[in-house]
Design a protein that fits this description.
Helices cover 19% and strands 33% of the residues. The chain contains five helices and 34 strands. The strands form nine sheets. The protein has a seven-stranded antiparallel sheet, with helices on one face. Strand 23 (352-355) and strand 24 (360-368) form a beta hairpin. The protein is elongated, with a radius of gyration of 41 Å. The N and C termini lie far apart (82 Å).
Length: 487
């Protein structure tokens, strides 16, 4: 029985149902791969919103200050202590310094230093210097921190020295341990020498401006000073000069300013009126109006600024950095990457005319009628820009109804007031940007007023130009005209 039974060898395979989740995530994976591929292989178009702004040219220069300075030497050998503070104006016979020949006064000052304290007036002076520094401090000029530190240390040293000497004035009367010396003339006290004390325009040289070779000696020292060695100097005149090398652009600017102030007398003599320019000192951001002249030495041009005040503000500086303030250019500010060029037909502006009740602008084109006769047809084309001689017309502009070009090379234009003809064909390029307000790129002509390495200032309110808040293509090289822009 068992052997007679036929074995059923047919195997029915079980089909597993389709996993919808796997298919779904598979489609997502493919979609992401395609998107990533398209992202890395397509051109990315970025927009820029036009804003009103300005660009100020950077006209920074470093000059050497020339003043009327007189150096005074020590009349005796000894240790020097100062009565007058640096940058302080002293009168004739005011006490400036003392000489301690024996060194006993110097030791007495050291011994009494711990007992000295500053007055409220002294603290107010220090606070004032700190406030001035804080108001002008900039993260871009960190080196000024060290200048500030040196200045504050000098101020505190002067104040302590004044207080110590005041306490020891009685020592002169009782023991005569030091000799006091007064100013021989009035002026502003400085305690440094650098070799420019007798410098003048007559000796002007390009070597002056080598700051690496510049040497400055601080006269305040605790060491023994010999007889005849410099101990202080006085700046005796309020007037002073600032001399600086000129580049070609600034030379031209200053010479033009100077010529503007020339006038001619009845006898033909040229009378030069004083020329003033506006500058801003980097040290304290003070704006000044010095007179200016141009000097030439060994084929090089130098600007000479003459001041009648403010000497004491900069008496401690030989080199001064400043900015010549030229009128800033204002307009629409756009990146230079957005600027492109487009070719236009150049047409004699005498051939531009108007027609119709709306005074539409265009040109009269010569055409041929069905009977073969010559006719004049008004073409209402867009005049993108006009100068004194020419009008600029887009060669790609079409008639919307026929899709034909409004003007083509070889077309003859007719003047309405004469029998003269002008043949279309001459071309020239205009600068512009691609406007994308309508979702596609439209060329807009621009007039650049000023530019630097990154931005342009363009004129506002020009025909077929830009307005504030217009949107343009940030990088003009990434698109073509009439290209649809997808967000």
């Amino acid at each position: 029985m068992a052997g007679s039974r036929k074995k059923n060898k047919k195997v029915i395979k079980y089909r597993r149902p389709m996993n919808i989740g796997v298919v779904f995530f598979g489609f997502i994976a493919v979609y992401l791969i395609v998107c990533v591929y398209m992202f890395f292989n397509s051109t990315h178009i970025s927009g820029y919103e036009v804003i009103a702004g300005n660009l100020a040219a950077d006209y920074h220069y470093t000059g050497i200050a020339l003043r009327t300075e007189q150096v005074f030497q020590s009349e005796k050998a000894g240790y020097i202590s100062y009565y007058a503070r640096e940058d302080e104006k002293v009168s004739v016979n005011s006490a400036v310094y003392t000489v301690d020949e024996s060194g006993r006064m110097a030791q007495a000052l050291k011994d009494s230093a711990g007992e000295l304290s500053l007055s409220e007036e002294d603290y107010n002076q220090i606070r004032s210097e700190i406030a001035v520094y804080m108001s002008n401090a900039s993260d871009m000029n960190f080196s000024e921190v060290y200048d500030f530190k040196t200045g504050i240390n000098a101020t505190i040293l002067d104040l302590m020295n004044q207080n110590m000497i005041a306490q020891l004035d009685s020592a002169e009367e009782s023991g005569g341990i030091f000799a006091r010396y007064n100013a021989g003339t009035s002026g502003v006290v400085e305690y440094y020498v650098d070799g420019f004390e007798n410098a003048s325009l007559e000796s002007l040289s390009s070597s002056w401006f080598d700051q690496e070779a510049y040497e400055r000696t601080n006269l305040r020292t605790e060491e023994l000073v010999g007889q005849g060695e410099p101990v202080y100097k006085l700046i005796t005149e309020e007037t002073w000069k600032l001399v600086f090398p000129l580049d070609e652009e600034m030379e031209t600017y200053l010479l033009d300013k100077i010529r503007e102030n020339q006038r001619t007398a009845e006898d033909g003599t040229v009378i030069q009126n004083t020329t003033y320019i506006k500058i801003r000192m980097d040290k304290d951001k003070e704006e000044l109006w010095p007179s200016v002249t141009v000097e030439y030495r060994e084929g090089k041009a130098y600007g000479v600024l003459d001041f009648v005040n403010s000497m004491i503000r900069y008496a401690n500086d030989r080199f001064l950095t400043f900015e010549v303030l030229i009128e800033e250019t204002r307009g629409l500010k756009i990146p230079k990457t957005a600027v492109t060029e487009k070719e236009f037909f150049v047409i004699d502006k005498n051939y531009v005319t108007t027609s119709g009740s709306n005074n539409n602008m265009g040109v009269m084109k010569q055409t041929v009628g069905e009977d073969g006769s010559s006719q004049a047809e008004f073409v209402n084309c867009t005049i993108y820009y006009q100068d004194e001689e020419y009008a600029y017309v887009d060669p790609k502009e079409e008639n919307f109804s026929t899709s034909e070009k409004l003007l083509q090379s070889g077309d003859m234009l007719i003047r309405t007031d004469s029998a003269e003809y002008y043949q279309v064909g001459q071309t020239a390029k205009l600068k512009g940007v691609y406007n994308i307000n309508k979702g596609y790129t439209v060329f807009r002509q621009i007039q650049i007023l000023y530019e630097n390495e990154e931005y342009c200032i363009v004129k506002e309110g020009t025909s077929y130009g830009l307005s504030v808040y217009d949107h343009i293509v940030l990088n003009a090289d990434t698109v073509n005209e009439d290209e649809v822009i997808y967000d």
